[in-house]
Each structure stands twice: as structure tokens, then as C-alpha cells.
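Researcher: Re-running this chain for the archive, since the previous output was lost when a drive failed. Same request as before.
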Amino acid sequence: MVLRKVLRNMGKALLGLLGFILCYGLAAWLLPLVSANTDYSGPATGELVYIRSNGVHTDIILPLRSAAKDWSTELPFANTVSDDSTLTHVAFGWGDKGFYLETKEWADLKASTALKATFGLSGSAMHVTYCQLPQVNDRCRAVRVDAATLLHLAERVEAGFAHRTDGSPQWIADRHYEQNDAFYEGTGRYGLFFTCNTWTNSLLKECGLPAATWTATAGGILRQYP
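Model: Regenerated C-alpha cells:
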């Protein structure tokens, strides 16, 4: 009798899990098809903002120096390995801190890291990468914005950083993927319903730029910029 009850409860739990996976999969597939800000029309003149994907993760790329903000004053080149001050743009990616710092390559991924990321147990981080003018291609899109929109984007990106009492972003010392990048403590928590791509999409959506209603994937963003 007890065994039958245990098996029945296990069956219900399994059905509940399968139902959750099905609903999440449908949402991840369907909601990116519903676009937001479809009436956006970029200005004739202004700055170009880029959305870049590596196939899984997206970054938003802004001019390093503009009327909206000079990022080099808060995110010094000295925090990178190269200390190269000739670079013109800066890419921002938000994500799970444990995943960022412990998974440089996919081969480095551990089950414990993935589980912590899924449930938002390791905090968040901002990945900052300095670069030259990006090239538009299958994995990099561009959109022209006016000064007000660029300022709004800068403010929303800024909100992704955790700050010290003096207002400066909290640099995570000596952690890099390459010569021109650095990591900083982030705000908010990564999870199934708010991924790195959800963060990028939310910025675009809140600033009136083409975006998905909701997306967990990079493809859900790039499809808004054919």
C-alpha cells in the first residue's frame, strides 16, 4: 500500500516535470515569434548599436565614447590584459557568474555549474569586451539610434553592474577569456526565465528597439533584425 502511494506520487511528480518542460519549450519557441516595437524607425543620423551572438549568447555593443557616455572612465583599459586604449567599441554581456567564470569553453561545463545557473544560485556577472568597429554578418546585427535612445541604453547597461560605495563598478580581478576583456560583478539573478539573452532582449525592448516579447535564446533576438 505504501509502495503504491510512493509510486503514484512519483508518477505525478514526473508528469508535472514533463508538463513544465513542455510548457517552457513551447514558450521558448513561440514567444520569440511575437515581436515588440515593430514600428521602430531609426533616425537618418545617429550612432550604430550592434547585437552580436556567438550562437548561444548575445552581447550588446555600444560606442566606447559618445555623447551619452565615455565607458573608459568607469571600465578602465588597465583591467584588461592588453591595456589597449585604441579600441573603439565595447561589448556587454550579462550572465550567471559561476557559468561565466568557470566555463571558458563548453568542455569545462560541470553539472553543478549548470544546476546553479538554472536556479540562480551563483549570482551574476557582466562580461565587458573592448573591440574595433564590428562587422555586420549572420551573427551580428546593427540598428541606428538617436542620442536619447543611446543614453537610455547606456543607463540600462549601467544598471547591470554592481557598484562599490564610490559608484565604480566592482571589477573581478584577473579573470579573462582573452586579451581585451574583463569581468565585473552584476546585479540580478540568472535563471530559466531570465537568461543572458533575456537580459539583452529586455534592454532592447525597454529602449523601444525591435525585440521579442520574451526570449531565452540568441536566435529569438537576431530574428528581429533580418
